[in-house]
Amino acid sequence: MRRSTRSLRQVRILWxxxxxxxxxxxxxxxxxxxxxxxxxxxxxxxxxxxxALVRFTPEPATRDAIAAVHPGDYLQxxxxxxxxxxxxxxxxxxxxxxxxxxxxxxxxxxxxxxDRLDAGAADVAxxxxxxxxxxxxxxxxxxxxxxxNVAVTAASLxxxxxxxxxxxxxxxxxNGTQDAFYADPRVLFVSFHEWPLYPGTGAxxxxxxxxxxxxxxxxxxxxxxxxxxxxxxxxxxVGPLVAAHxxxxxxxxxxxxxxxxxxxxxxxxxxxxxxAIMASLVSLVPAGRTVAFLEGGYDLPALEACVGATLARxxxxxxxxxxxxxxxxxxxxxxxxxxxxxxxxxxLG
Length: 349
Ligand SMILES: [Zn+2]
Hints:
Elements: E1 13-16, H1 35-47, E2 53-56, H2 63-67, H3 74-83, E3 86-88, E4 94-96, H4 99-118, E5 124-127, H5 149-159, E6 164-168, H6 175-181, E7 187-194, E8 216-221, H7 227-245, E9 249-254, H8 271-282, E10 290-294, H9 300-314, H10 332-343
């Protein structure tokens, strides 16, 4: 596999955003709220990227592109609900009139990023989309998610013959993405998530089915897991698997709700951890072949800090340092990683 080459020139980050993402409103008091994008924008400013930031406005996904993941009348039901002014799909998931345009743009953002990376526009892409996507299964919107944005892009890349790896670092299991590719050997899916936690899926022994056996990897982590656990897991599990898969594209479900301050979860990452995790993941594939998608992240200052630290690190400008605790090899969370490694038949390092 060709490795990323780093030259002295500025690393360019493709940034996809659109004010219409704020038009999706899941209702008063909902944690997945438009203000999250204000925090994300503050994070972009914090990173101070200047010319290194290459902005683009996403185009809406076609119905056919979305149907590759969500077939049948899936979209029609959502469109009807938005056309009626909005309403609840389940206890957690709701749409407003503005959700329809937002979800088409969110689903199209990754596709637009791939096109632009193909044309050499940048070294890495980030699409700051709402609504998020990784809980949306092929047949069911759920968990704040309407269309599985990362899966739509993965399906498009796989259809053109690419070898795709999707790594989900949101604190919740990416059940929708897992379901979309559970029997599909073209797409390697790896999810880090707190366990137990919503949606309750993502057990260690959920490893794919049929031709896809071994191309789904779950790394369930106990509450309190910190950045060193993720780095160990990336070094010992994700890196070897991405290489073995021959992945030439990496898509990241970048949820920032594993931050220690997040109100919905119990994981303990810092913004510096997210920056380091993202930098490690990006290094697994050639330059210009990574697209990160915003998923969760519900503490606004933490979201701002995570986005800022990640972009700054990816642009190789500076690293935001924060103190963090370190777990020794006997700690239960390190042991959890080792168990995953053993379960996959990887030799213990
Ligand atoms: Zn989440």
